[in-house]
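hi!! sorry for the late reply, been swamped w classes. u asked for the two structures so here they r. pasted raw, havent cleaned anything up. first the sequence of the first protein and right below it the tokens
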Amino acid sequence: MSRLTGAGEQRGAEVIDEHGDTVPLPVVPSDGDPVESDRHPERPSGPPYAPILKKVAIGLAVCLVAGAGYAGLQYVADAPASPNSRGSHQPVSTPTTDQAQAGVQRAVAGEAVLQKMTDAVAHDDTHEFLNTIDPQSTAFQVSARMIFGNLSTLPLGTFQLRYVSDDTNGLTPDRKLELGGTQAWLAQVEVSWQLSGYDVTPARETLPVTFVTRDGKTYAASFSERYAAGQRKPIWALGPIELAKGKRSLVIGLGSKADAKSYVSVADKAVESVSKVWGKKWRQKLIVYLPAKQAQMEGILGAQPNTYTQIAAVTMAELDTPAANAPVRVVANPKLFEELGTQGRRIVLTHETTHVASHATASPVPLWLAEGFADYVAFTAVPVKDESAAKELFKAVRAGKVPAALPTPDAFAASATELPQAYEQAWLACRLIAEREGQDKLVAFYRAVDRSGSATGLADAFKSVLGMTEAEFVAQWQKYLERLAGA
């Protein structure tokens, strides 16, 4: 989206002070094993934001952040395959008995290495972990030492590496020649880890791991070779991490300790603000990933380079498939988060924390309700002036362009030309419910749609909770917008 500065100006709201059986994944070439995921230089994104004091860019802080955040998993699922990738749709020849036996031998050798790694992490044994690393892969030895240090720093409840599949053609001839040994191959490995005190279930991702056998012993030679389009990277593999722990939050940063600490109080406040509206029947814990570079953010999300140039933060379930009780993280865009200032960060984190509490990443609620409710909670915590927060929508309504219906999912796409209006419409729809029926009814309405599990869940909730049809609500909402806009 090319409206970075424009969106910020359009929704630059004045904040009122608080005190007032696995298929092998496709593979793409890699340049080696960088410690940090910064291989793709960022393109210019238009005029930069000026420093923000009490004026915060709500277009960045709220309008843009959640659209991409909520849709993050869908983006990963729909990520285009690289033109150079080896997709699963290519014809696959039936393996011979010898080939099958060789595959089993590779799997056994690779699994043995992974088990030694797992045991070393469990026993906090650096020496044993580094013994699994190829002695001739000097760059990866540095990365492996960093990775082990990160895993030792995290409050791990569980950690497991599991051999899933391999691709005998995954490594180029030149790469095999470079590795040497009697054989070298690329495998897909499932890594799962659970953060004690925060996660109900383990996070899971798939890593491309290169193995090499030399002198009768098999080693790991890379954790970052030939990532597929859409394949996510665990934060602990991207660079040295720093932890900052709050009462209700854990910030995991790839920058300085001070940077991580600076977000703890804001994250704790976000949890408290969400609980005041949503209630306390959720874990009331928040994990924030704070990359040092946008490229690291996109690596964590499995996104194409520069996809999130205009997005301040994303809510992500750290699983390959959305599920209830999935470990959910808020991933910040470091540059844009820094520009928001304390109040802007609070709006963003409150919005994203609402998605965490309401498990929006696995919920059937329509986007307008998910995003509008998150905006409602955020703006309840940090009040904004209507004229500023709904500037673009009010301008359209005064020009006679009253929305005919609640915003569709397409309206929240990052490329949508009227993206700010979609968020403004959704927010005011939710606020109308709260004003007319009470905040508890708004929460009950969201919960009813969330747990419906039916294609008619939204219509049913309109009737059972609000006592009206969607059409009747839209008519009231249209009049509400006209009144607020002074049309």
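now the second protein. again sequence first, tokens right under
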Amino acid sequence: MSDPVYISLPREDVVSYLGPAWPPTPGDPLLVVPQDASLTDGAAIVYPQEGRPGTTWWVVDSTIPRQAAGTPDEALAALLPGSVLGTVLSPTPTPDTPPAES
């Protein structure tokens, strides 16, 4: 396995490449790229097998959402050391307590 390659690109370009996959759906897996990658928006290229072509994953806001390349999972996380696999949160957080009735 080769080290991943990170390429910085303008955010609006990456969002256009993701097409209908952006924004991600709440509850979907989401991989946060490692901080030492210093990549906010662009591409992460991983090489699961030495000497074979890599796979490009689009990165937006330092995260890799579900996309045409696949769904982020533990195997991808292992190819990007320091990354963290999580879940897309709802854009509108639910309140801890119901609103008070008037």
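hope this helps!! also noticed smth abt the second:
Residues 73 and 85 are 7 Å apart (CA to CA).
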